[in-house]
Amino acid sequence: MIRLLSIELQKIYLNRASRILTLTYFVLLMLISLIAVIKFDIGPIKFHLAEMGIFNFPYIWHLNTYIAAIFKLFLAIIIVSMMANEYSYGTLKQNLIDGLSKKELLLSKFLTVVLFSAVSTLFVFILCLVLGYTYSSYTEISIVFTDIDYLLAYFVKLVAFFSFCLFLGILIKRSAFALGFLLLWNIIEGICGILLHQVFFRNSPTADTIYGFFPLEAMSNLIHEPIRRLSAVKTVETQIGVKNVQDFSVDYSSMLIVIVWTAIFIFLSFRILKKRDL
Fold first, then answer.
1. Which residues of 113-129 are buried (b: 16+ CB within 10 A; e: fewer)?
2. Nearest-5° angle of CA 38, CA 44, CA 46?
3. pTM of this prediction?
4. Are 14 and 118 within 8 A, CB to CB?
5. Contact present, 40 and 131 (Cβ < 8 Å)
6. Less CB within 10 Å around the terminal CB: N or C of the chain?
């Protein structure tokens, strides 16, 4: 397993574009901490984000995992390129000639996906601890680790999304077309969502239930947008008469759907590799 992983990491390390994208991704994650310095002081209007409780435990787990997930596209490009380069440079065929089986080949890619996701999750975990202990009003252990399951949701979300990208890379062979298809799929899911909500099941919870089984929507449902959970936003909503009854906790039924989709993507990837004449 370590041998397979080391082969993939060496390929990524030797690729200059992959190194730059990986570095950019982690730099962007670190930029989350810069939210703390956003401050407006215009006459009587004083506004400091860090003092609004956005880095309070346990809310910080929700906020940071949601923001960090936005940057996953950088690693997705590496995953797609990793597969497309195998076809372009002929290394896929060479690996098979050197004795690597198709199963081992796919396993090496999936292990890389899991490693990227695990490192990113660990990075966000450390970032949350540093920001939380610096700015949070609550540092009791029982509060600090409340809602830490957002990290699990974040990890599952990354593994699923990167597995989808890996599948597209294997299926389409060209990184630009694979990323284009990813965008197209996102649009198709959006159109299906509109049809379900506005045409087939208007004003019915059935639309949400069916739509929740779509892969990208299921991944999105793992971590809901956190802004409306802020006490300041809740106060404003209450004042203007908006009732906020949204459940912000991690949705474990969506997590199960996402895990099933991950298994489907990996299985289909293996079937394509097995049948394709390389």
1. beebbeebbeebbebbe
2. 15
3. 0.90
4. no
5. no
6. N
Task: Go through 9-48 and write b for each residue having 16 or more CB atoms within 10 A of its CB, e for each that does not.
Answer: eebbeebeebeebbeebeeebeebbebbeeeeeeeeeeee
Angle between helix 149-172 and 102-135 (nearest 10): 150
- Match 């309070």 to its residue by tokens: 56
Backbone dihedral angles phi then psi of residue 156, each to the nearest 5 degrees: -60, -40
Write the pLDDT tens digit of every residue in 40-87: 666 666 666 667 778 889 999 999 999 999 988 888 888 888 888 888
Residue 203 has pLDDT above 90, yes or no: no
Q: Which residue has the tokens 């993939």?
A: 8
Q: Which residues of 202-229 are buried (b: 16+ CB within 10 A; e: fewer)?
A: eeeeebeebbeebbbbbbbbbbbebeee
Q: Compare 101 and 32 and report the one with higher pLDDT.
A: 101
